[in-house]
Design goal:
8% of the residues lie in helices and 59% in strands. The protein is mainly beta. The longest helix has 26 residues. The N terminus is likely disordered.
Amino acid sequence: MWKLQSTYCFVSMVFLCGSVFADQFTDQMISTKKVDFGVIATGSEVPQFIEIKNVHNDVYTISEVKTSCACAKATIDKTLIQPGETAVISVQMNTRNFRQRKDSNVIIMFSSPRFTEVRVPVTAYIRTDVVFTPGLVQFGDVEAGEEATAVVDIAYAGRSDWDIDNIKITNKHLTAILEPVGQRGNGQVHYKLTMKLSDGATFGRIRDMITIVTNDRTNPNVPLMVDGVVTPDIMIMPPVVNVGSVSPGQMTVRKIVVRGKKPFQIEDIDCADMADCFKADLTTDVKPLHQVPIQFSVPDRPGKFSEELVVKITGRAEPLRFNVTGVIAN
């Protein structure tokens, strides 16, 4: 009987030590130890992000990401994290169905290289007197060089002297126009917020936070999310061409696709560092889609390489760029 008890204790100790060991490794990967939304408005969609960076040599697998309360939701962009890679968890409060102080946990379950669980506390105060409709400034997909507009209704119920003093914006391509709607009465205040995105916005995802600054001394600042994607008028696919392992003197051909919303002509494709190594088979055609073979004559430069190729479009001031990568064998 004594031997059985001793064996049981030994196994328990090993199990507990293993769990602590795993937590030490995974804790090093988590960027945020606590997610604090602060004070947010009813209806607002204000995400916070947790980064998980694999700083170890093992591949880490996440089997599940969830929250301990329906007041919060968490999603992850990838579940297999290679060494050096980063996964991102988006955390969002359910501001439509929950009010006032809410606390939860983001639960991250790792299944390999060892089983462990990490909990990140989440807290927020969802104020009931300010309501955003819709919950964020949503521009959607915007073509580069075009302006875009989005409207949010801001409703307040409380003090009759409540007012919006300012709107803080950090993105130089965003501007705001605030207009009162209707008459004030019984503590009801309505504003129409019109956000404009300038035609000079750069390509890519727009994910910014603006701050509604009020005269409320207790909680003057209310965050509002801005989201959208600026899409280029012309795109190159793939943006990175990998030729793999090649040998000096070898010639290999890869094809890129250049697609636009309107017909265009490709004037030139050039590479600054390997000008004599790349040759593009171009035509004088003006069309919305070009399939261009790129011939690569491998130089005697052993090792990894990554070269930027510049694509000049007739009549377009800003050129396009893509990369060619690979390994030249010894």
